[in-house]
Amino acid sequence: MADQVWIGIILISALILFVVDKWRYDFVAMAALFAAYLAGLVPRQEVFSGFGNPAVITVAAVLVISHALWRSGVVDTMASSVKGVGDRVWLQMIVLTGLTTFVSAFISNTGAMAIMIPVALQLSRSGAGHASLMLMPMAFGSLLGGTITMIGTPPNIIISDIRAKHGGEAFGIFDFTPVGLSVAVAGLLLMWLTAHWLVPRSKSRDTSSSPYDVSAYLTELYVPEGAGLISHTLFEFESKIKENFAVVALKRGKQMITAPPRYQRLKAEDVVIVEADTETLQKILDITKFELNAEEEIGTRFLVSDEIKVIEGIVGHDSRLIGRSAADLRLRHRFGVNVLAVAREGQPLKPSLSDVRFKPGDVLLLQGDAELLNDVFNRFGCFPLAQRNIRLGSKRKLLLPLGIFFAAIGVSAAGLVSVPVAFAMAAGVMVLANVLPIRELYEHIDWPIIVMLAATIPLGGALEQSGAADTIAEAALWVSQGAPGVVVLGLLMVVTMLLSNVVNNAAAAVLMAPIGISLAGTLGASQDPFLMAVALGAALPFLTPIGHQSNILVMGPGGYKFADYWRLGLPLSLVMVVVALIMISLQWPMYA
What we know:
alpha+beta; Alpha-Beta Plaits; five-stranded antiparallel sheet; 24 helices; elongated; transmembrane
């Protein structure tokens, strides 16, 4: 009994820390694992056993293959075809959500959204607008798509491995398809019919090609004869003011210097374009004796050139920018990148922008060298929203990665090799075939997810071996006393779904699967429907933006608030539970 109490305390503490989100989930999971080891709940030889678990290997391999398909332009080719659907918002939503759902069945949900969000924004700006009407259904569609195959989402991979450990064979790639496809189709139909009324519309991104009034952040300053700091460098100019502002351009006669180097010296009659708030601007004028130059309307003409670009990007769910500011990171000094604007929940934040601490879902407007901007986005875990050149590539380059991918699916579906081996080999073949450069092999593996999975798998085992899972199962049966088995199944799925809205869905699957197996054992029923209920519940967190990376990614571009998600998410969740229970009962009966 003491073991059950200790594992309960450890897991509840971990769940609270997951929700509070002060520390990243991989760190919390490892801390919980070490606590369980010190309490004698996890044997010494099993502490790091999760790192060699087939589910962890499969997730890593799928992430590598997803990036290879993304890099080769396979999905971009499909996305480019969407641009011909016209400017009818309802039709755009149907096509975009349908395509996102299909793609997410085979590559990571986050990768699919990173590709499709810029396409949605492009269609919105060129047509009738209302990007917010499309983005939330697309995010939810990516979650629905993940349920269709075993490789579509980490919970399915985890559940497949857990089944193998409990006396059965691992689920095959398409064993999830009858239930997952039915759920996905029902979810899409519901969203297509109700999104017009249930999805909040934000006008922040619908009325123009940019969510920001760039001119509100920029001011022209004229350098008259006799002004202070003439012949000084821009570095000396910025050091003298000692405030947060940015020099984004320098106009000298007919020459326009965009993002001027910090060693550039000021001359009389220069026009300096700065990004600053009113207090900082007044200080600049007082110290330098520069003059406001309001002869021309300020616009984006000062921001871009052949080499310098302005690109929007979303702060990802595990970005290195989270909790830090541009000043902390010294983006201008280290990378020559200016933060021109930040939008949160669709609304621009005012200067001083360099002190804004970034949050997941923030939309940044960055200016700098195009190649440097790409490096910054990759380095810091952000997703660019700029219109991209579609990487259509040659037919051979498209067919090769697709051939490798479908070969891996074929040999694993035929039972010739296991899924982890098939997909790990496919990732290696893609490197050998130069579909994916070897330097990028590990760059796009979501390492926090991998570490979290490896840490929670032994915790799930401790939950089961301590008897806590049986105790929870007995409590659930007592609550649903006298009810049919399908009610117990529904209760398990609802609890898993609620849990996945506040913690990582992979962690929800690991923790709830032992409880599902215990429920099945207590009822004398097959474990398969209970495992399927856990997989679906963990994969479909529609109620909060923190439930999944896809939900976070659309928060800024869509202008959504935290409370907006349940408006569509709650009815969608209820319908998904009903459809899933019907299909699970038909496909995976509780009693043979």
